[in-house]
Amino acid sequence: MDEMKVPSAYGEAEYTDRKSRFIGHIWRTDTEEEALARIKEMRETFWDARHNVFAYIIAGGQTRYSDDSEPQGTAGMPVLDVLRHEEVFNVTCVVTRYFGGVLLGTGGLVRAYSKSAKLALDAAGISVLRLWNRILLECPYRLYETVLSAAERLGAVTEEKEYGAEVLLTFLVPSEETPAFQERMTDLSGGILQPVLMGQERMAVPVKSS
């Protein structure tokens, strides 16, 4: 897969509904073995919980989920649906539930597990794994805001800023957008800005949520 979204980091979030505690956990897992290891870790850590529901998606590999004794379709699938909706791959989510003594019903369980998964994913953040070009740009202060705005519209991510007589900006630019980025920077500055290509790397870069 040339480009895909992955979790930026480990994410954890807790949610309470009618005295039941739901603890969502998110990891980036590049293999099914890593996913299974995380699930095993949670089952051992939260051995006293009523349920440890999970879902994972591995790019080019397996997609699986488990209700872990919750009513069928009320837990694992809602968690998986959150991951699919956000179009995230190489991801494992475990939602731990400590039962609070009050039954939530089918709809309540679906909402609780969905919300827990989404909160954990929000805590983890999302990165785009792809080929990026690193571009250096020396920018006058009068063009600073214009340059940042134009760069963002082209899908570039600002990696570094150094403030001196001018601002030295380092951008990570999607490889296919690099010609358009270079042309746009030259055009908006009347030829003053001269983007310098510093290298290319395939990596996961955090991006803003849509």
Which features would summarize this protein structure in a list?
210 residues; alpha+beta; Ribosomal Protein S5, domain 2; Alpha-Beta Plaits
Commentary on this structure:
By secondary structure, this protein is of the alpha+beta class. The chain folds into two domains: 4-124, Impact, N-terminal domain (Ribosomal Protein S5, domain 2); 131-206, 2-Layer Sandwich (Alpha-Beta Plaits), CATH 3.30.70. The protein is built from five helices and ten strands; from the N terminus they run βββαββαβαβαββαβ. It has helices at 32-45, 76-85, 105-124, 144-153, 178-188, and strands at residues 4-7, 11-17, 20-28, 51-57, 63-66, 91-98, 126-139, 157-163, 167-174, 196-206. The strands form two sheets. Strands 1, 7, 8, 9 and 10 form a five-stranded antiparallel β-sheet that branches. A hairpin with a 2-residue loop joins strand 2 (11-17) and strand 3. The longest helix has 20 residues, at 105-124. It is elongated, with a radius of gyration of 22 Å.
